[in-house]
Amino acid sequence: MIRLAVLDMAGTTVADDGLVELAFTEAVAQVGVAESDPAFPGMLDHVRRTMGESKISVFRTLLDDDESRAQQANAAFERAYAERVGQCTEIDGAAATIRALRDAGVKVALTTGFSETTQRQILDALGWRDLSDLTLTPAQAGRGRPHPDMVLTALLRQGIDDVREVAVVGDTAYDVRAGLRAGASVVAGVLTGAHGRGEFAEAGATHVIESIRDLPGILSTQD
Predict the structure, then answer these.
(1) Rounded distance, CA 186 to CA 17, Å?
(2) Helix (H, G, I), strand (E, B), or coil: what is residue 136?
(3) Could you report the average pLDDT of every consecutive run of 10 residues in the chain (223 residues)?
């Protein structure tokens, strides 16, 4: 029986209409990489492929582990995203699904690859501060996806005894890998965000669903 659902935010429960790519473009410009730079297309492709990973980790990779530039770019990314956070909207049915899960006795944790500050801004923009049982970021758990830290931290904080009682849902292969590494029995890829069926199959997802609204139907078969 599933007792905890660990749900990603952007692309899974929250629609941000391309804000990640826009904020990334502004961020790398701050460290000297303009859109006209020959390196820019490859960097943008990396960002698309690593959606779901901790953003500071992405910048470290792109900037050759130059910590000062990575921190500068990450700070610029957070500022650019925050300036437009009001554009974020709920993925249709997400809040109702979360409430239904909680009403059925399933605890819900919302996770993100963003910083705690940005996560709070998104939650405030949507009026979601009290929607879930727990919210987590990579810095609060130790490491970001594809590491299992956020899933396992959610399990510990919510007093769940068995990793098999956990479901993980996200829109990227990184979410899937994190869920599998944590030992969750349901690890679902959702088709409202960055990755598709091919990426989810390659990563080993147990389920692929059209929308977060389909999650309760899956969980009802796990009893």
Answers:
(1) 27
(2) strand
(3) 95 88 90 92 88 84 90 90 87 96 96 89 93 95 93 97 96 95 97 92 96 93 69
What's the CA gap between 207 and 209, in Å, rounded?
6
| Residue 7 backbone phi and psi in degrees, to 5 | -115, 130
Number of H helices, E strands in the chain: 11, 8
Residue identified by tokens 């990334």 is 24
C-alpha to C-alpha distance for 48 and 183, rounded to whole angstroms:
26
d(CA 108, CA 220): 16
- The two structure tokens encoding residue 33: 């990489």
Domains and CATH numbers, the chain: 4-16+88-219 (3.40.50.1000), 19-86 (1.10.150)
pTM: 0.87
C-alpha of 113 from chain center: 5
